[in-house]
Each structure stands twice: as structure tokens, then as C-alpha cells.
């Protein structure tokens, strides 16, 4: 049985080897201000830009980096523009999760054969720094996956972008290293269909599964399947709402985002106490954790390296499984609509997602939802 699983993993890897996440692109109402927030609050560095000053007339994009994390913040400069339409419907949010591949043409024929809906055919972009090949397919809602082949490109981001820097006097780095996982919310009854999409079209495998018994309160519940690619660098949990007495937080998201989309992005650090201290002092808002959480914590997870009083002061959650433990914390939504938020995570052996925290987290999330009048 394990041999079969390994064999099928090897077969899947053959048809679509993914090197990792290349970038995440956000469509926003005001990219200049959103980029300022990510630089000063999250500590990202402005690395490149394109817009009117670089000869692009209809939009502006800011490329931000910290560790291996790369965000592109894009806005439209006129109405009746795909970016403006996206913002009108969804508010600020994630438009594209770009995945890096070694060979874009091979990836294109693999996903096309397997039924991907192609949104843009392979194109080759060139400048004096080299060549990039890209194409895009549809994922849940209006979310897009762009595949990027950039082995023969030496520039900062993509042809057409002007490099900025190396220093960014606004950026206040917080020790964020890479994207750990990115979660999608889909409509009730659609989780299995999207899990199957990642399995059949992109060659992902089911990594973990949570049902409504794992994640529920008297009011609301969710189900989640975590899909991961062969090398484990790309993990996409897919959530759907489950029945509760009142509106699930997933339904609240779907209402305000006007459909499926990216719910949260988990950013990894190897010193969560330092990272969260910096983020808090830089104005990032985190969910309140009920004080009762910390009274029960040490008996639930046993010995850990970090002082409990510091975790409690910063509102950091902890969870343990057979492989070790993890520390995590969730921000409030970073827009006025209760849609996208962030998780900061430090893994100490555990490859889980904080199942033991879901209950505590749900209670905290529902307190916030009630405050917004949506429960
Ligand atoms: Fe998460």
C-alpha cells in the first residue's frame, strides 16, 4: 500500500513538478496605499514597480518581498478594467497564486490534457535580463493560477518591471520567511470538487482532512481538505461551510467576497515571538484569544521552548501532534470587508494546521463576527 502511494506520487510528480509559489498577486483599490501598509506593517521591501512611469498606462503594480515571500499589489487606473471589476465585486483580495515550474510548455500540456480551464495561453516575455514563460488557468471563484518558468531570467521580477532598491527605507522586516500554506474558501458542497481539481489537474495529494466534528462550535462549523503538491512546498487547504445554528464564518466570507476566494495566507517565521512583537508594534491587528485558552494550554501541549507568559501576552496559540508542535496566530481581516486575513506560523516539528486550536479560534472568530453584526 505505501509503495502504491509512493508510485502514484512519483507519477504525479512526473506530469507536473512544481518548484514552489512564485508570487501572489492582489487586486486592490489603491495599490500605493496597500503597498505602504505591507511595507510598514508587515515589513515587506519594495523590489520592483510598473505603472505609468514605466510605460504601462492602465494599471500600477508594486512588487514586495520578504524572505522568499513575493507579493504583487496591483490596481487599475481606469474604470471598465478587469482589475477594477474584480475590486468592485470582491473588494481587495487575491487574484492570482503563481506557481513556479521548470518547463512552462510541459506544464501547459499536462494541465490542459487533464481538463484545466486555460485563461491565457503560454506567452514569452523578454528583456535584457532574459526570458520568462507564463500561462494561466482558472481555480476556485475568480482566483487564477499562473505558471511561471523563469530559469533563464536574471531580472528582479518580470520583464516590464523596474527594479527599486536595494534598500527600502519604509520597510520594517519582521522575520517572515516563506508562505506555509494558502487557504481557499468555497461554497457549501464544493470542497470535494476543488480537492479533486488539485488532485486530478495539478497532481496534488490529500495531506490532511478535517470534518465538522473537528471544527465546530454550537454556532458554526467548517470542513477542510488540505491538498499538497509532491515536494510539499505548496499546500492549499480548501474550506467549505458546514451547518451550524448561525452563519458560519466561511459563509460570512463568501457573502462579502461575493464568492469563493483566498481566505488566509500563512507566513512562516522561525522566531514567532520576535515576529509577532514586531508586527504588533507596527500596527498589525490580531484576533483576541480568550484568557481561558492559556489556562488550559500547558496541560494540553506539555513542555515547549517558549515561555507561556510571552505567548499569552502576544496572543500566540500552540498545538501539538505526534511529530512535534507548532505556534500560530491569526490577524484580523486586512480589509474592511471580513475577507482575507493572515496567519503567522512557526513549526517545531508538527506538520499540522493547529487542529487543536480550531475550537479556540472559532470562539474568538465568532466573537468578532458578532461584533460586526453578522452572526
Ligand atoms: Fe492556516
How would you describe what is shown here?
This protein has 375 residues and is an alpha+beta fold. The chain has two domains: 155 residues, 2,3-Dihydroxybiphenyl 1,2-Dioxygenase, domain 1; 197 residues, 2,3-Dihydroxybiphenyl 1,2-Dioxygenase, domain 1, CATH 3.10.180. A hairpin with a 6-residue loop joins β12 and β13. The mean pLDDT is 91. The protein is globular and about 60 Å long. The protein is built from ten helices and 17 strands. The strands form two sheets. It has a nine-stranded mixed β-sheet. The protein has an eight-stranded mixed β-sheet with strand order 11-12-13-10-14-17-16-15, sandwiched between helices. The site of fe (ii) ion has 6 residues, from β10 and β14.
Relevant terms:
8-stranded mixed sheet, 10 helices, 2 domains, single chain, binds fe (ii) ion, alpha+beta, 375 residues, 2,3-Dihydroxybiphenyl 1,2-Dioxygenase, domain 1, 9-stranded mixed sheet
Residues in helices, as a percent range? 25-40%
Instruction: Write out the distinct hetero groups bound to the structure.
Output: fe (ii) ion
Largest sheet strand order:
6-7-8-5-1-4-3-2-9
CATH class of the largest domain: Alpha Beta
Overall mean confidence score, pLDDT: 91
For the largest beta-sheet, the strand count, sense and barrel status come to: 9 strands, mixed
CATH architecture of the largest domain: Roll
Helix-strand pattern = HEHEEEHEHEEEEEHEEEHEHHHEEEH
Instruction: Based on Cα principal axes, name the global outline.
Output: globular
Radius of gyration (CA) equals 20 Å
Low-confidence stretches: none
Q: What is the number of beta strands?
A: 17
The CATH homologous superfamily of the largest domain corresponds to 2,3-Dihydroxybiphenyl 1,2-Dioxygenase, domain 1
Q: Total number of helical segments?
A: 10
Structural class: alpha+beta
Question: In whole angstroms, how far apart are the ends?
Answer: 45 Å
Strand share of the residues? 25-35%
Oligomer: single chain
